[in-house]
Every structure is written in C-alpha cells, then in structure tokens.
Amino acid sequence: MIRVLQVGLGPNPGGIENCIMNYYRHIDREKFQFDFADIYGEGLAFEEEISGLGGKIWKFLRFKKHPFLFLKEFSRVLESESYDLIHINLLSAANILPVLIAHKKKKGKVIVHCHNSGIPAGTLRRLLHHVNRPILRKIAEYKWACGQNAGNWMWGDRFPSKDIVCNAIDREKYSRNDHDRELLRKQLNIQENETLLGFVGRLEEQKNPLFLLEILKELSVVGSKYKLLLLGDGSFRAEMQNRAKDLFLEDKVIFLGIQKEVAQWYSAMDFFLLPSFFEGLPVVAIEAQAGGLPCFLSDSITKETDISGNITFLSIRQGGKVWAEAIREADTKKTVENMDFPEEYDIFYAVRNLEEKYMELM
Hints:
The protein is of the alpha/beta class. It folds into 2 domains: 2-168 and 346-361, Glycogen Phosphorylase B (Rossmann fold), CATH 3.40.50; 171-331, Rossmann fold. It contains 14 helices and 12 strands. The protein has a 6-stranded parallel beta sheet with strand order 3-2-1-4-5-6, with helices on both faces. Strands 9-8-7-10-11-12 form a 6-stranded parallel beta sheet, sandwiched between helices. Helix 3 packs parallel to helix 4 and helix 9 (210-220) packs across helix 13 (320-331). The relative contact order is 0.12. The mean pLDDT is 93.
C-alpha cells in the first residue's frame, strides 16, 4: 500500500478539491491510500466522502495565524506517519511553508502540483509569490501542473508535458440529461423560450463575476429572455446581489450557492460563461463541454481548455457588449454538440496515468 498525503485542499469545493477527489474516487484503493491535511483550519470539502473512502483527515490550526504551531504539528505528522508521497497542491507560491517542511523532513517524496496560471488578489500574496517562486523552483524535486500554461507559469517555459496531470472528469456523469433539464428548469421557473446562462465557481476576484452582470445587462437591452444561474459562493456575492438590484436584474439572476453535486445543473443551462482574469485549466469548462454546452471564456484562459471546438474565447477588455453579441448570435443556433472526448481528460484513463506516475516515484 502506497500512502499519499494530499495537502492544499480547502472547505470550498473548487478546482483543486474536485480534481483530487475525482482521482481519489477512481484510484485503486487496494494499492493507494489518500489521507488529507486541513492546513486552513476550516474543514475540507467532501469530508464525509473522504472518510467513507477510508481517508484520514489531519486537522491543523490555520497556518497563516499560527505558523509556528502549524510547523510543529505538520512536522509531527510527517515524522510519525512516514507517508510515501506528499502531494502538495498550490494555486501560487505565496505559501510554500508545507513544501519547506516536507522538504526538510525528507520523510517521503514531495510532489508540488500547480493548479493555476496567475496570482490571486492581494498585494502581500503577489509579493510572496514573486519572492518564493525561485525558491520553490529550486527545492521542488517533482514538479507537476494541471496544464502546459500552468506549468510554464510556475516552473518555467520548458515545462515537460509528461508532468501534466489533467483535471480529468467522469464524462458520463456530465453528459446532458433531458429529464434533469426539464425538472431543474421547472424548479428554477425558466420558461421554454428563455435562455439560461450558467457559471460555476467561486465568487471571487479571479473569476471576475461582476462581469457576468455586465453581459446580462447588455443582453437585457434587447429583450428579457436571458437569465443567469450562479453555482458557487464567495466574498463577491453580496456585491453582486446589490449590483443586480441596481441594474434591475434581480429577477434574472439566480444565486444557488455552493452545491455538493453540480453535474446535473449543466443540463439546465444553454450556455456556459467563465470570464476569469486567469485560470490554470478550469475543470468546470471541461465539465461543461462534456455536456455539449457552447462555452464563452475569457481569452486570458489557456486555449488548452478547448477540447471540443465548442469554446469561444473573448476579451474582457472589450466589455460585456461584445460578449452579449456573441451569445445572441450563438443563441440563434442553440445546438448541443456531441464530441469525441479526449482520453486524457477521462478519469478512467487519467487515473491509470496518475497511478503509474506515483509508482515511478517509488
């Protein structure tokens, strides 16, 4: 049994959390066991499922508030448990304390896995990232990334494609389901002639959620048939609710909050929107494409994300009017596309690749 400690997951079921859990659900648990470190002190998304699959969750005090206590307790766990692999998942190099501790203890092979291609908001975070990234590049022995763009950003322009671990999904789970579509649209009070735009993700600055309201406002100028469905939560929710009210859009925006299961909601949508300032390789866009949805993404997101030919990349700088025009044009067609799903994004293939990579390190 190869024991793997997963580090870097948080309480919000976002990209990292869903990526690692997709692998955990499908990995051969007779050969590999995942345990999880809660380094944020706020609990983990999918805790019940982790426990049900046999994973242990190590609870630590929030490292930002109690760095020395975290150092002591994290070191103790690494010393006592002797994990074979320590898989550390990062959005940036702002916090490399777990990497430094694991590197110093030398109690297992340390993998550093980048899931982003830009720095989340905050002056201090940006400063720490630029200071720490050269250190991280030097000490990290095993450097992974969710895609080529993320790998180049964190590790340098010559990042080898063999060290990409894709944000893979169970494609069948996200396939369009007409029964779910009818049921959920009725639940949301979406009429047959109305068009539902969808967004899945954290309502935080990186995702640029206020821009969604700008698009919706432009679409509403020429008609009232468009509505916006938001799955996720974050610090921008209150501001979005207030802005929607100011723009007289409150009856057109549906805030569903965090959902434990998002797969069925893609069937209710007509288009998927992701106007992020940056992403690693967004798993939500992979999920949306698996359901045949036409997708509109900001052109700051890596083109690797287009695995279906059904994505339109648009500039944020050109404003919501350009997005609205593209959506209106696509709405005249409104077709669900069948696609040849690339095997590297199919979890049943990708998990075998991860198992082989783990085995190679052993």
